[in-house]
Amino acid sequence: MTRTANQLQACRNALAANGFDAFIARDSAHASALFFEGILPQLKVRTLAWGDSMTMAATGVLDELSRHKGVQVIATFEPGIERKVLIERRRQALLTDLFLTGANAVTLDGKLVNLDMIGNRTAPLSFGPKKVVIFAGRNKIVPDIPAGMERVRTIAAPLNSRRHGMQTPCVRTGRCHDCSSPQRICNSWSLIEKCFPKGRIKIVLIDEDLGL
Predict the structure, then answer these.
(1) So where are the chain's domains?
(2) What ranges in the chain are assigned the alpha helix state H?
(3) Using one digit for the tens of pLDDT, what is the confidence trace for 10-29?
């Protein structure tokens, strides 16, 4: 196996040992197939929501799910909707059957590292939705939690701030300043070492560089 394949397998094994259901996909198309053929049929999904994730978007699963009859999709990022309505929808997302998102970092010893502005991803990862499915590219794999936090500060947060049009210091310099900007997106950490209940969080590791 290649170095990347070895890392993916080691990460998958560690996640499984920590109570997560973990899968490996060759690419984003295979990740979608794994989700629809192997994961979704085992779940009873009537309501779902999602957190912002370029990796998840690359799989196309959300577009396909929106066409499934009998599934209510809570649109938490709908264009043209005022922010207070979207915030209320994100509160409703905590009570869904399924929550879909990505990850800022996944450690080789099977832990999840995420950081949010308002907590609409970090909160449902820990509690609320009955099931969570995370899609993560190989570029999100890091050695440990400190490396994951460093990845967020030096890669994910500056690039996501730029993507969302924020005017924070990291957008200008590409590095964290531990700023006090009103547009700061680095507010709510989530460090998940074990999955409880076992299998509640399912992670699809994808053998591609995806997302930020």
Answers:
(1) 3-143+192-206
(2) 3-17, 28-34, 54-59, 61-65, 83-92, 122-126, 145-151, 157-163, 169-173
(3) 999 999 999 999 999 999 99
